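Q: I'm building a small set of examples for a reading group on sequence design. Run inverse folding on the following structure and report the sequence directly after it, with nothing in between.
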């Protein structure tokens, strides 16, 4: 499985001389499965460069799957500028949290009304299919996709992708349920205090992942003044990943006020936290253009799914939790 970052910034695109190394574009991640299946996670401003790269390297009609975590602007602003959507013969399946049908289509169409953009959704030449999602599981190519709600001011899903013996979990916007002081964070050691039930569920969602791409917009020091804004302190993302037994953690959704040097310092703080906990978790800051070739490791853990959830290969449709 190949994972490539095209946008790593949160809230607002911030290109410029101080964000050259980690990038200034908002959330967009490309995933390629061994069978060639293309999956795109979020469609922030990073989708512009991804779309150009896809079209320049693809001679045949392009088939892709776009998984959107939620429809805040920093996660969909790249959609009207995503070149593959303008090419006849291309096919795209779009997925986002919602219920009742046509929720995603309505939101994207609203963003492309003439008041905001010169081309409407109906004028796009590619074949586009919309899927509103709830918590469920389904398949895309050779990948098993598991969705779980995140704690954010808009209806938001995290995505767990399992394919080729590799597990990648994408959590772009998430706030801890146990809020307040840094010492209240998820225990990095088994001796830690009790964990909020929903935080424990979040840890289980990350269990055994080879790569966790996690919201790390704030520091533990900044967070108390930003409670309720829907984002995680980077230190808590470390604790989640440690508790889940994850292999690698990509700090993601960098705050627009954090320049490259500040991200460097935050990465170092998080690595020191891993060492203090006696863990082996690899921590790095997600950077635009960075590509990771993910390979299977022994004992890869699959996320448990209850028998009542949708069978693999089923078309994702709204339904009860």
């Amino acid at each position: 499985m190949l994972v490539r970052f095209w946008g790593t910034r949160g809230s607002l695109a911030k290109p410029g001389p101080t964000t050259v190394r980690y990038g200034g574009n908002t959330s967009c991640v490309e995933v390629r499965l061994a069978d060639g299946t293309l999956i795109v996670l979020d469609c922030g401003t990073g989708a512009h460069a991804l779309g150009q790269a896809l079209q320049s390297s693809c001679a045949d009609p392009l088939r892709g799957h776009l998984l959107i975590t939620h429809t805040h602007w920093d996660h969909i602003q790249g959609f009207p500028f995503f070149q593959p959507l303008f090419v006849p013969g291309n096919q795209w399946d779009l997925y986002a949290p919602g219920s009742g049908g046509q929720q995603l289509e309505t939101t994207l169409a609203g963003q492309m009304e003439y008041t905001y953009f010169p081309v409407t959704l109906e004028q796009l030449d590619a074949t586009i299919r919309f899927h509103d999602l709830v918590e469920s599981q389904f398949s895309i190519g050779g990948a098993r996709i598991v969705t779980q709600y995140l704690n954010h001011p808009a209806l938001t899903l995290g995505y767990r992708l399992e394919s080729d013996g590799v597990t990648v979990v994408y959590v772009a916007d998430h706030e801890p349920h146990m809020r307040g002081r840094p010492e209240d964070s998820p225990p990095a050691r088994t001796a830690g205090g009790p964990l909020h039930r929903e935080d424990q569920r979040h840890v289980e969602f990350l269990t055994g992942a080879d790569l966790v791409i996690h919201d790390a917009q704030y520091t533990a020091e900044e967070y108390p003044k930003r409670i309720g804004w829907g984002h995680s302190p980077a230190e808590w993302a470390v604790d989640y990943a440690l508790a889940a037994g994850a292999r690698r953690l990509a700090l993601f959704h960098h705050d627009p006020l954090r320049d490259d040097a500040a991200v460097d310092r935050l990465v170092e703080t998080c690595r020191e936290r891993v060492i203090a906990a006696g863990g082996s978790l690899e921590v790095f800051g997600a950077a635009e253009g960075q590509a990771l070739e993910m390979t299977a490791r022994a004992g890869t853990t699959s996320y448990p799914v209850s028998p009542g959830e949708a069978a693999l290969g089923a078309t994702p449709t709204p339904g009860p939790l």
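The first strand starts at residue 2 and ends at 7.
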